[in-house]
Design a protein that fits this description.
Distance between the termini: 32 Å
Oligomer: single chain
Number of strands: 0
CATH topology of the largest domain: Growth Hormone, Chain: A
Order of helices and strands: HHHHHHHHHHHHHH
CATH superfamily of the largest domain: MFS general substrate transporter like domains
Radius of gyration: 20 Å
Largest sheet: none
Length: 345
Amino acid sequence: MRDRESTHPFVFFFLVLPYGISSGFVSITLPFILTRVGFSVALAASIVAIGVSANLWRFLWGPVADLTLTARRWYLLGLGTSAATLVILALLPLHQNAVPVLMTVVFISQVAGTLIVLPVGGLMAHTVAENAKGRAAGWYQAGNLGGNGIGGGVGVWLASHFSKEIAGGALAIAMLASAAAIYFACDVRIVSTETLGERMRILWRDILSMVRSAIPLFTIVLVCSPIGAGAMNNLWSAVAPDWKAPPDQVALVSGVLNGVLSAIGCVIGGWVADRVGRWWAYFGSGILIAMVAIIMAVAPRTPNAFTVGVLAYALTCGMAYAAFSAIVLLAIGRGAASTKYATLS
């Protein structure tokens, strides 16, 4: 029988990849398709916002994942629904009268996406050894960013060179292929024979225990802080003219290369969290992000400086993302891990 803490950190790269693909398709590829067929930018943004809002409420159905099916079954259910809704989005006729249906499918697709990450959070908490949770967090964040790049970058390329149907179908196949990774992770179910009332009491005691502890409370403060937020990642294209960077360079540096360096930073940050310490990794990466921003502000503004600065910023942001996830894993412990991970992350 396999040791319950035997799940390799690398497995989480593939486990969370489908969530990133789904999110990338909805937030990047879908608006690209909609604006090309005549939808206004404002309407396309509204449709995306409906889908993204699902992430705000995932803590509400976290208890369902903890108290009912096993983590593996919830993962497969979420993945299957997410892939199916992605195909539906690709096949739907896109016209103004279809907006309510489109919004509904987008929202369902992102709710299904949260049902992918909820059990993955629980699996990281329960099936990874303590001295490897930083690396698991790093690979988790790398998979999220990598999937977002596939769902967005590859999705846009397929939609523009072939069709939205091919884009949706290909991405759905990629998502389903990632499902094989779930069989390399030990399964988890925190309750089994208890009645529903007993399960709810177990969950409530676990959450109360978390909020009464210092580290979870401090982690909640960190969630609200700007440390490691990487806000400039959303503004590079807007400020690029200050560095006289040409459009093609901006697209390459702030797009594909930014995603690659962020993912590499996630892996590095996870490794540092395990070797040096999670708090050192988190606050250290936050200091590095600030140093990069300060150097970019005072250094000569040239196209080459833009490239180096943006990529250094992406690398350090990736380190911060991984370190933060490692801290969340420290804060939640085990027990109702899916609910607690959704609440803090």
